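Two proteins, back to back. First:
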Amino acid sequence: MTATISLQKLNQFIVQAKAATYVGDGQNAEPSRKRAHDLAFQDGDFSYLDSYFGGTDFIGQEVVYEKDEPVWAMNYYGRILQPEKITAVQAGQIIKQSLSKLYEEERFWGGFSHTVGAFSYTDTSQGDLPSFTGKEWITRNGMTVYELVYHGGMIKV
């Protein structure tokens, strides 16, 4: 990352990119790998690529580039734990509604809870933009029915 780009600007771009892609039902990009689902976003010198595999159980990686150089990335793995209590479609709707609220706070992870009907969404994390880990989950009647773990940070060459 160049010295002229602040972590605040990077955070703002990540929130904007995430809101415009998965949460905003953005258009799929050409897959970068066989059988991948890719979502892309660009604004000025920054570009974003979210590339994942799967559906009910899924794994992926988000990368932010500045002038085509990777500067930040996050890996994630999510899965439905109780398929008889929540479908992948329901989990996706709850996640999108919850993350939309989180993005309104101009941030994208950690220290957040949101209720959607009978479901509760929670996201916790440790660290900060340069290096972090976290977990999101959905509960119904006190039982965890979905979970996702993530980690990431700055890329230095």
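And the second protein:
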Amino acid sequence: MRDEHRGRTVTAIEYHAYESMARKELERIEEAARLRWPAVRIRIVHRVGLLQVGETSVLIAASSPHRAEGFESLRFAIEEIKKSVPIWKKEIYEVGHAWIEGS
């Protein structure tokens, strides 16, 4: 988790999710990656709740016989997560907070 966004100091981030739908969508992304890169094995985990600066919010693990395919699948997964998974992010600042879209 980064400590700055658009010139503001971020002290924490709070993730909210429609958890059952989010899990299904993460599984759909994993399957789409498997279909696109058959030799790649991929797993995605996204945390919810309050996270402090420096904590990990999303973990995407890929195993691949070739580096390029592995990296491509990781990029694909993170971009798809931003587009379609029902997880909402509230950045908390030194003063105030804001809901962030597409981050």
